[in-house]
Specification:
The complex is a heterodimer of chains A (286) and B (314). Chain A is mainly α and 286 residues long. Chain A is built from 15 helices and no strands. Classes of the chains: A mainly alpha (286), B mainly alpha (314).
Chain lengths: 286, 314
């Protein structure tokens, strides 16, 4: 506001200065990431020797060699596994959280208040408290070292946060629409499918995006449940790569690190507005 | 509604069986409990049962062996009085939260205020500065961080330009934890976004009125903006504190799962992981998990309580 009120070269200078400062700060903040990308394209010997961010002789060698990995499985397998797990988690959360949220938002039944309280409590339960006994349960039924412990619970709406988010969203929709549909002879499932779901698209997109980002970035759960090389995800695979070869081949390690964040960065670029609004309006933590 | 259809007089002879058969499964499938069923099963099987179970085994020496014994409070006793590594884990996590969380929240507030005004390019800066928090908890960034503070590393190369010889940050128990605090502050994006949204809610008239009354920008910030933001500050502090107390990935990846150097990166969750999944001392690890749960619960309660005191005088 004050910028606009000022006139002439004074305001111009101020604006330039402001952008210079901001650009400088942003550059410093992002420097590690830029460095990581730039080093991925450099031959091993130059990684710490070269002062420049632009590779003098850019090479794809790090990507080619790193992709093969050294654990008997290439990153193709890790990426495929990560996509399968994240994909199933997204589907599970979309279906289960919507159904549960619809009941919370639109139905009256005994114990509803109590259940909503349980939902709220489940939001703050730390994963670390649950994972030990969950592991014991899954170990008992032979699910350890499969994708099941990482995906099946999503089909039971265990991500209370998304149930909460969807509930609030559905409560905000006009009730008259459901009532009109019921008068027309729709059952609850039809109301859900034909009235609620189409109106919930923004909320559903938020759920899908955050589920994907969180599942992709999850390390603790995947580390605990996945062991065999052919079942590893990108996160766990990258960590094992670090343990086995990483300390001697920085270039490959940085190249694979770069690739491992590409899906999340693409999603961020595509859905930036939804992500930022989702965070701001719900206060969830990335 | 369903009762009504059933008691309605049939209009035509052939139509009669249809609604009745429909009513039977209809009332089941349409009942609220049918909608609630998946969540109920999930909460019971994946939350309630594990929670109760972990409470029970925290009083045993369970470690996947058949001869499990009830050991009373001994896990808790060992933990609190006889396990220097546990105390170290508390210390590391405590230092991390004590410095990392307030610094991160303060920094994100500062940046949010700088980016609050509308100007060409504001969206670009917001998006760019958000990226670190998007990737912050990933293995990739943990890997990167050991290059940032490695020796040779980015920070030391930068220091070398000024003729300063940097320390071996990650291998020195005095400094290692501070590199992770730096990482926490670096992930300020999501707090920033929440502050930006809150700043947008502040009525312009208030600030204009204050400006007309001659308030300097600092006075406006201190006496108009900050009191209005207080609940959001508290919210960010709690959320960040909870997530900081569960820090795992960075510590695990950077220390190779050991908490090295000299246990200076032995975060609480990392120690819990070692106890549960490396030593298979499930009883002990469960006791640790319950301790964490109680501490997080109490801390949240206290912050909310103390927060209310100064949130209310706006």
């Amino acid at each position: 506001m004050t910028d606009r009120a000022m006139t002439g070269s004074g305001s111009m200078m101020r604006l330039l200065l402001k952008h210079a400062v901001l650009l400088g700060c942003t550059y410093v903040m992002l420097y590690p990431l830029i460095w990581m990308i730039s080093r991925s394209f450099m031959p091993e010997g130059q990684i710490f020797a070269s002062p420049s961010l632009i590779p003098a002789e850019p090479t794809l060698e790090n990507f080619v060699l790193g992709w093969r990995s050294t654990q008997g499985q290439s990153f193709s397998v890790f990426f495929l596994n990560s996509f399968i797990i994240a994909g199933l988690a997204v589907v599970g959360n979309l279906v289960a959280c919507t159904i549960t949220a619809y009941a919370f938002a639109r139905m009256e039944f005994r114990g509803m208040t109590l259940m909503f309280a349980v939902l709220i409590v489940s939001l703050i339960l730390p994963l670390q408290v649950l994972i030990l006994p969950q592991y014991l349960v899954f170990n008992q039924i032979g699910w350890v070292d499969t994708f099941l412990p990482l995906t099946v619970p999503k089909f039971f709406a265990v991500d209370g946060f998304f149930v909460y988010l969807m509930t609030i969203f559905i409560r905000g929709l006009p009730k008259e629409l459901d009532q009109a549909a019921i008068v027309d002879g729709c059952g609850r499932w039809q109301v859900l499918w034909y009235v609620i779901v189409p109106l919930c698209k923004p909320a559903l997109a938020t759920v899908a995006i955050f589920t994907f980002i969180w599942t992709w970035g999850d390390f603790f759960g995947q580390l605990v449940y996945l062991n065999s090389a052919e079942k590893l995800t990108v996160a766990v695979g990258l960590n094992r790569f670090l343990d086995t070869t990483g300390s001697s081949f920085y270039g490959q390690l940085l190249a694979m690190s770069t690739l491992s964040v590409v899906p999340v960065l693409i999603i961020f670029m595509l859905f930036q507005r939804l992500i930022v609004e989702g965070l701001a309006t719900t206060g969830m933590k990335l | 509604m369903i009762e009504a259809t059933r008691t309605m007089p049939p209009e035509g002879g052939e139509a009669l069986p249809m609604p009745r058969r429909r009513a039977a499964w209809f009332s089941l499938v349409e009942s609220p409990w049918f909608f609630m069923a998946p969540w109920l099963v999930g909460i019971l099987a994946f939350m309630a049962l594990p929670i109760v179970w972990s409470f029970v085994i925290s009083f045993t020496n369970y470690s996947f062996s058949p001869n499990t014994q009830f050991v009373g409070l001994s896990n808790y006793q060992t933990m609190l009085f006889n396990d220097p590594r546990f105390i170290q884990a508390l210390r590391v996590t405590g230092i991390y939260i004590f410095f990392g969380v307030p610094l991160q929240v303060a920094f994100s507030l500062l940046v949010a205020i700088a980016l609050n005004k509308r100007f060409a390019g504001a969206d670009f800066y917001r998006a760019a500065l958000f990226v670190p928090s998007l990737l912050g908890a990933s293995v990739a960034v943990a890997v990167l961080w050991s290059q940032v503070f490695g020796n040779p590393g980015i920070v030391n190369s930068a220091l070398a330009v000024f003729g300063i010889k940097g320390a071996n940050w990650l291998n020195d128990p005095r400094y290692a934890i501070y590199t992770l605090i730096a990482l926490r502050v670096w992930e300020f994006g999501s707090s920033m976004v929440i502050f930006l949204a809150a700043l947008r809610q502040i009525p312009k008239e208030l600030l204009e009125a204050a400006a007309i009354d001659g308030a300097t920008s600092w006075v406006r910030f201190r006496f108009v903006v900050l009191p209005l933001l207080a609940p959001v500050v508290v919210f960010n502090l709690i959320m960040q504190m909870i997530s900081a107390s569960q820090t795992f990935t960075q510590a695990y990846v950077i220390s190779g799962g050991t908490g090295a150097p000299a246990n200076s990166l032995l975060f609480y969750t990392l120690y819990l992981y070692q106890k549960g999944f490396s030593n298979f001392q499930m009883g002990y690890a469960s006791a640790m998990a319950w301790f964490l749960l109680v501490v997080i619960g109490c801390a949240t309660f206290l912050i909310l309580k103390s927060g209310r005191r100064w949130v209310n005088n706006d």
